[in-house]
TrEMBL record:
Name this protein carries in UniProt: Cation diffusion facilitator family transporter
Natural source organism: Sphingomonas liriopis
Main location class: membrane
Biological processes annotated in GO: zinc ion transport
TM region(s), chain numbering: 13-32, 81-101, 121-143, 164-186, 198-216
InterPro entries: Cation_efflux (IPR002524), Cation_efflux_CTD (IPR027470), Cation_efflux_CTD_sf (IPR036837), Cation_efflux_TM (IPR058533), Cation_efflux_TMD_sf (IPR027469), SLC30A9 (IPR040177)
Length: 314
């Protein structure tokens, strides 16, 4: 029981780390906003609450995605995680960005003088330390999976939204803390509380941009994305080198979960191969494919004449 709990925490360390940080930070920000009347601090408090809710939704999505296949969903429930990732992007845009811009607008049209900013500065420093710790964990875990590719390409190619969502959220949170700090300081330095409202709007715009990027990535996963090109070429290579195959017509893949891939192969077999021999050959190739790419959850190899496949594709 203890080992299972430890493994589950380790598996979701990015989400648990972000959740713990955001809960503590959110409470502190709301207290500071109530004491000082800072719009940007109130905005940051809402931001932390939204992020906390997002981590809970992603944990829930991971739990739901691990359900076993059944008659209604023969390929499993893995893509439910992608649905909740899309919901997270919508929440960031609708609540996080929306509330931030609205609060900023109110403090511009009806500015309120700020009290001693010391409480804000203390909370911002504590929040930066906690958010920075969460960001470091997210960066470290994502770096383990990105290999030699660039960060942006790794995000675009990632099939697990939990890693890059937390990374985006924490990056936006750190940027928001910096802007909130500048807004609080400038409001007092120039004796203009409207600046704090402007800072709140800028934070909202950053959240809107992050939400848009996350929604685009989540939408692609939800619709269905192919496996990594290296996986496709590995499958093609294994099938093509078998002596019973004359041509590999096509290899089509789709992720049914972050770690599960459906692959369909059309191949032209040697004409002299009998039906019984073909079945045995297909089973052998499936075993080879699973050994080479453990993430292949479903494999379909279809014997098909090259000219027929070309005609259908044309």
């Amino acid at each position: 029981m203890t080992q299972g709990l430890t493994a589950r925490i380790r598996e979701n360390i990015v989400l648990y780390g972000a959740l713990a940080a955001n809960l503590g930070i959110g409470i502190a920000k709301f207290v500071a906003a109530g004491i000082t009347g800072s719009s940007s601090m109130l905005t940051e408090g809402v931001h932390s609450c939204v992020d906390s809710g997002n981590q809970i939704l992603l944990l829930y999505g991971q739990h739901r995605a691990k359900r076993q296949p059944d008659a209604v969903h023969p390929f499993g429930y893995g893509r439910e995680l992608y649905f909740w990732a899309f919901v997270v992007a919508i929440l960031i845009f609708a609540i996080g960005a929306g509330v931030s811009v609205y609060e900023g607008y109110l403090h511009i049209v009806a500015p309120e003088p700020l009290s001693d900013p010391l409480v804000n500065y203390i909370v911002l420093v504590i929040a930066a330390v906690l958010e920075g710790s969460s960001w470091f964990i997210a960066m470290r875990e994502f770096a383990r999976t990105k290999a030699e590719t660039t960060w942006w390409r790794a995000i675009r190619q990632s099939k697990d939204p939990t890693g890059f969502i937390v990374l985006f959220e924490d990056s936006a949170a750190l940027a928001g803390l910096a802007i909130a700090g500048i807004g609080v300081w400038a409001s007092h330095a120039f004796e203009d509380p409207r600046i704090d409202g402007v800072a709140s709007i800028v934070i909202g715009l950053i959240l809107g941009l992050v939400a848009t990027l996350l929604a685009r990535e989540a939408k692609g996963l939800l619709i269905g994305e192919r496996a990594n090109p290296h996986v496709v070429e590995t499958v093609r290579g294994i099938i093509a080198k078998h002596p019973a195959i004359t041509t590999v017509n096509h290899v089509r893949t789709i992720h049914t979960a972050p770690d599960a891939i459906f692959v369909a192969v059309s191949a032209d077999f040697v004409d002299s191969i009998t039906m019984g021999a073909g079945e045995t050959i297909i089973e052998e190739m499936e075993d080879q494919l699973r050994a080479a790419v453990p993430g292949l959850s479903s494999i379909y190899i279809r014997p098909e004449k090259r000219e027929n496949a070309a005609r259908l594709e044309g």
